[in-house]
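ERR on first pass: missing label on line 2. Operator R.T. fixed the label and resubmitted. Corrected input:
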Amino acid sequence: MLFGALEAGGTKMVVAIGDGNGKILDRKSIPTTTPEETMPLIEEYFREWNQNKDHEIKALGVACFGPIDLDRNSDTYGYITSTPKTAWKNYNIVGELKDKLGIPVGFDTDVNGSLLGEATWGCARGLTDAIYLTIGTGIGGGVMSNGKLLHGMLHPELGHIRIGKLSSDPGECVCPYHKDCFEGLAAGPSIEKRWGKKGVELKDEAKVWELEAEYIGIALTDFVMTLSPQKIILGGGVMHQEQLFPMIRQAFEKYNAGYINADRLKYLDEYIVPASLNDDQGIMGAIKLAIDELDYQSHIGL
Amino acid sequence: MLFGALEAGGTKMVVAIGDGNGKILDRKSIPTTTPEETMPLIEEYFREWNQNKDHEIKALGVACFGPIDLDRNSDTYGYITSTPKTAWKNYNIVGELKDKLGIPVGFDTDVNGSLLGEATWGCARGLTDAIYLTIGTGIGGGVMSNGKLLHGMLHPELGHIRIGKLSSDPGECVCPYHKDCFEGLAAGPSIEKRWGKKGVELKDEAKVWELEAEYIGIALTDFVMTLSPQKIILGGGVMHQEQLFPMIRQAFEKYNAGYINADRLKYLDEYIVPASLNDDQGIMGAIKLAIDELDYQSHIGL
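pass 2 clean. output:
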């Protein structure tokens, strides 16, 4: 059985066809402009596949930039809600796709999608509680808790915890909402504003990554205190600076200060890890969202 | 059917008998000294009940001070682990009770117990994601996530997130592990150290509670960003200062700064609330732990 996958990002939409084992058979990238321009191209991709191939896709999974409405009881379930990308604000992306393709559509955040990919076919397999954190132009996190993706009231916003500016920091928090939050102090734009250059041009500047590792270490400590994950997966542009991993593990130890004392923390290089699916975790997670939605529909259909 | 309940605290042990509706039929308080002195009194209470009453208790639930080992696959499952109460350090409380009483014993943290009580018979009924926070001599939190109590790697330690000392704070963090954590800045001992008197003697000092509400508001904002609860329940000695509730809601609004925009946040007096079960939430939660353990045992027995 085949499934459609859409990884919906602010700059590009990745569409793909996958099988029940997460294998990607075909994929294409479409620029994200406006719903009027972008959505017909997405729909055409899946419609063409279903017209020309022996094996039609039976469901579609969408891992979407946010914030989005994930509450199935809400009138605006399946909408992109208060995004700064104004063309997509209050846009019913799930309704549109269901309408035009006539198949079940699974839906979750982009970061929950990536985590689901890792939990199904990657380094978080077999775990019940895990975090996928992306650190790039923004900071977002997906959370699995008690074996299921965490939504709760809305969905986690791991980038906006308060972490407190360090006295060694010559910069400032750039978040328009918060004075001391993780994203505002540690995402790409704050690095660029603080040091006057983009992160990729600062690779050899030790002080840049020392401070960055401190902030990430503080945040991970807070996530261990609140979400108690069995593993923390770090992805996103900033994490391409691979020298950060050992520094982050060291900062985590410093800020945990021996307080949480669990077996898994004895092996931090297996606890705080890079994504394991060659940057396919998001699109593979979207395949799993499609599989799960088909399963969900058949259960409520009983 | 009847159930035994034990709310195990650092100063007293509350034992009780309850029915399947959470009704408490009998209860007794026993001082917490050492396992050698305290445990026989607990066991005697339940043994006597079973010898003298028509309806024996079929299982026991224990809501216990921590840290504790909740991992059923661990060699030390059911132990109190690295507590500063040295007589109870590495003590196998579940093993002892099972051994002496010969009935199934459910086990969780004291704060998860209180949350379970509220989720079963109190103000969190019907919710899938909620937090119970106790603010007293320490700060601890129970978390329900996706309909189940959250354990993950260990269990949450909500009192030890970093919240960052405010510049208006004349005191300091008193946590021996952390320089800027919630418990170290906002639990009873930090209030006493900062202002030179216990909280109960400071009721009319506005500045005391303004600062306290700020810290609690910051912490709740972080919990909303990470755990996305549908409700936050506040208990513990400090929360007997009821004037704090409106101040905390206001501080939460200040620190969230409109970032998380969910329907439930429009009604903060229903979102950030006091415990609803007349301080019986812990012991009622222990009854539910007993009920759930009996259910669990009968399932794995299939």
